[in-house]
Amino acid sequence: MREHLTALDDAVSGLLDADLSAVSDSDVVLIMQQLEKSVRRAGAVSLRLIVESAERSLPATLGFNSPNKLLVEVLRVSAADASARVAAARDLGLFHTTSGEQMEAALPETASAQRDGDIGADHARVIRKIMRKIPHAVTNADVASAESILAQCARGGTPEDVESAGHHLRAHLDPDGNLGDDRDRFRRRGVSLGRQDSESGILGRHRGLPVTVIVTTTLDQLEKDAGGVTTTASGGLLPLGDALKLAERAHPVLVLFDHDGRPLHLGRRRRVASTDQRRALIGAEGGCTRPGCAAAPASMCAVHHVLEWRNGGSTDIDSLTLACDACHAQVHDGPTGWATTRAAAGDTYAGCTEWIPPPHIDPDGNPRINHRHHAGELIARARRKARDRPRAEDGVP
Ligand SMILES: [Zn+2]
Asked: I want to staple 339 with a disulfide (CB 3.0 to 4.6 A). Which of 229, 283, 356, 397 is the partner?
């Protein structure tokens, strides 16, 4: 341990003294990213030491009545910081049984993402907060899937992305829980104003679409006895029962999807025109498809060509995607521009829009997908995977 600590200290001294003036712009970003990764991994080492001290009963031996007190006294950290670290160690740390065998972390995927340096303490804190709120009635398999989905989301996004994914995930795991609470919906209710446009005066239009109720759901949700949760075009979540009640009074468009989220049926006997294409996209994509975009539910998005029109893109439904104005503006041929493409058939997320980041964000240009609007599909996918897994892998003795 001492040898590693000396090497670490030497490395930090070297970085503090290194001349940055000769480093190129893109390397400054790369260095930031690499350092962040190392700092995050170092955070996992810190949790390891807290676990070790707890297993040795070190706080009691040294006269402290809690592990938190030990950290406050020994490291001179705040009480809040100490409490956060001890809580993180409890969920992410690798404890041992009394016979000395190492146990799995309470949140195994989150712990391994932190050890890889892909997520930091803030990501982990948000995941722990979401996991604590999952009701006890949810099955162990679904709890494990939820943790895995959140950890995966954290590896590619910000803590805010995880928070938003968690909100959707909880609604799908517990459609009859807090979701139907009017106070909750009242708190989230709001009005947004768009640009004024010359209109026919008959029906209001929003981005070329007549004002109508668009509610999306899946076969799984419709088949559920207990009722499921549907998604509105503005990204709201609505219990299925409420959506059906709404349908009695309005002329809603129902968009139905297969298990992989591909449109099965667009409930209007009409030739496929741009309006229907847009409705299908609202149903299929739910909002801005750029990973990390928190701003835009489907009703705030424009239809964008996956392959730019001027580069040969067509207006077939397969070539269209939803993007908010701010994200759409980031797609260009310049050095800081993003590119979009469609995940190929056979890919896990076949048919989804992939966004390829510019080199300053990811030098390898690995495509990213926005899963924010698709918590229900991710859970369904995880459930099918668990169901299809051969029994040998289930750890059946
Ligand atoms: Zn966006």
From this structure: 356
Full-model pTM = 0.66
Q: Residue 142, SS3?
A: helix
DSSP 8-state secondary structure symbol assigned to residue 138: S
Cα 16 to averaged position of ligand 1 atoms, centre (Å):
37
**Residue tagged 């104003």 (tokens):** 193
Distance 291 CA to ligand 1 centre (A): 8
In b/e form, how buried is each residue of 179-204, taking b as 16+ CB within 10 angstroms? bbeeeeeeeeeeeeeeeeeeeeeeee
What is the 149 CA–ligand 1 centroid distance (Å)? 21
Cα 301 to averaged position of ligand 1 atoms, centre (Å): 8
Question: In whole angstroms, how far apart are CA 201 and each of 41, 128, 194, 197, 273?
Answer: 60, 51, 16, 11, 22
Domain borders along the chain are 175-179+204-387
Lowest mean pLDDT among 8-17, 41-50, 235-244, 263-272: 263-272
Task: List, for residues 363-389, the tens digit of each pLDDT value.
Answer: 888 899 888 777 777 777 777 777 776
Element (H or E) spanning 206, and its range? Answer: strand 205-206
pLDDT at 66 (0 to 100): 92
Q: How far is the CA of 325 from the centre of ligand 1 (A)?
A: 7
Instruction: Note whether 321 and 303 are within 8 A (CB).
Output: yes
Residue 55 phi/psi, 5-degree rounding, is -65, -25
Ligand 1 center–CA 290 separation, angstroms:
6
Q: Give the Å distance between the CA of 263 and the centre of ligand 1.
A: 22
